[in-house]
Amino acid sequence: MEDTEVTQGNSETLFEEPLVEERPEGDDDARVKAILEAIVYITDEPLSAQQMAAALAQPLDKVKRLLDSLVADYARPERGLSVREIAGGYKMSTKAEHHEAVRAFVRKLTPPLKLSLAALETLAVVVYKQPVTAPEIMDIRGVQGAGVLKTLLDRKLIAEAGRKKVVGQPILYKTTKEFLVQFGLKDLSELPTIKEFEELGRMELVEETPAAAPQAEGATEAAAASGDAHVDSAAEESKSENG
After folding, report:
1. What is the 3-state secondary structure (H, E, C) of the chain?
2. What is the distance between the alpha carbons of residues 12 and 127, in angstroms, rounded to a whole number?
3. Within the chain, what is the greatest distance between any pair of CA atoms?
4. What does the buried/exposed string (b/e) look like for 13-47 if buried means 16 or more CB atoms within 10 Å of the residue's CB?
5. In this predicted structure, what is the pLDDT of residue 66?
6. Span 133-159, pLDDT tens digits
7. pLDDT higher than threshold 80 for residue 194
8. What distance in Å separates the CA atoms of residue 155 and residue 150, rounded to the nearest whole number?
9. Are 152 and 126 in contact (CB under 8 A)?
10. Which residues contact 32 (CB under 8 A, 6 or more apart)?
């Protein structure tokens, strides 16, 4: 009789419903909290707890609790950022006590590299002809460019590379490490070759040539375009050189 009862007991155990393994509540909280942190970080405008709860399909009370925890985490003195409730939403920003230090740092940042057309032309000549002298650059460009060279020197994009062994011993110029950094190059070998530029130029000319146009009209338009281009180019060159 006892054997029967044991067997029945084992049978009942065997046919019990299997337990579903659930993720610990703490793990899910950590995941949702991390997502809330990322959302607050990427948004420009403050987002309310209701908006985030609806977007994540999470209970509002849970989202509020995790946001409060996030605010407390960022309130610690070793954190440079803060998460604050602003205008009914949550926003991440630098802490007020660090504003002066951050402002001073930003003032010292190097401004974005901006070069005139004349400076870009001169830099291109130096890049592909280096080491090259100022008279050689002038011969290639067809205009004076002492001011442009000074600009490139001040920006540390080019540097002196000795003197050429000719009459007058003019200064030679070459590109610098700063040039590679500004243009994201490992070395000069990553630059396109002159031949590749020529091929690109020929492809653009082919694409820009009208497929079908009356010969007389095409000649007239070409002449007008050429004249306009010459005037615009001269004006731009004069403006760039003076600047």
Report:
1. CHHHHHHHHHHHHHCCCCCCCCCCHHHHHHHHHHHHHHHHHHCCCCECHHHHHHHHCCCHHHHHHHHHHHHHHHCCCCCCEEEEEECCEEEEEECHHHHHHHHHHHHCCCCCCCCCHHHHHHHHHHHHHCCEEHHHHHHHHCCCCHHHHHHHHHCCCEEEEEECCCCCCCEEEEECHHHHHHCCCCCHHHCCCHHHHHHHHHHHHHHHCCCCCCHHHHHHHHHHHHHHHHHHHHHHHHHHHHC
2. 85
3. 122
4. eeeeeeeeeeeeeeeeeeebbeebbebbeeeeebb
5. 95
6. 999 999 988 887 788 999 999 989 999
7. no
8. 9
9. yes
10. 56, 58, 62, 63, 66
Res. 221 pLDDT band, cuts 50 70 90? low
- pTM here is 0.42
The whole-number average pLDDT for the span 210-235 is 47
Q: What angle do CA 62, 49, 87 make, to 5 degrees?
A: 145
Residues written for the chain: 243
Question: pLDDT value at position 25?
Answer: 55
Domains and CATH numbers, the chain: 24-97 (1.10.10.10), 117-210+232-242 (1.10.10.10)
The pLDDT assigned to 190 comes to 85
- pLDDT interval class at 74 (50, 70, 90): very high
Report whether pLDDT(44) > 80.
Answer: yes
The residue written with tokens 């002159």 in the block is 194
